[in-house]
Design goal:
mainly beta, three-stranded antiparallel β-sheet, 1 helix
Length: about 100
């Protein structure tokens, strides 16, 4: 079973619309669970990466990135279009939604 990467840009775990990305490890155990809430995922089957601040919108886009640092492990690219990196607070716009 393949692994899954799920972006949830409107998640509020780190603040209003901070966003989150779930990395789910495909496994026979996961297949046996059937329907399950992401927040109830048993330890070891996956993990969440939480946007750190309001309106970061982490997970609006997600992608595999190959092995960027050459350590033999696959890397990920996670978009957070509202993330403030220069001390300026701003609210990102969601595509297709009034902003
Ligand atoms: Ca929200
Ligand atoms: Ca790597």
């Amino acid at each position: 079973m393949a692994d899954l990467l799920i972006g949830v840009p409107r998640a509020d775990a780190g603040g209003t619309d901070s966003g989150a990305v779930w990395l789910i490890r495909g496994s026979a155990e996961l297949s046996r669970l059937g329907q399950i809430a992401l927040t109830a995922l048993p330890a070891g089957l996956g993990q969440a990466i939480i946007g750190p601040a309001d309106w970061d919108l982490l997970g609006l886009a997600v992608s595999q990135a190959g092995d960027l640092n050459g350590d033999g492990l696959g890397d990920l690219i996670l978009a957070a279009p509202g993330r403030d990196v220069a001390g300026r607070a701003r609210r990102a716009r969601m595509p297709g939604r009034p902003g």
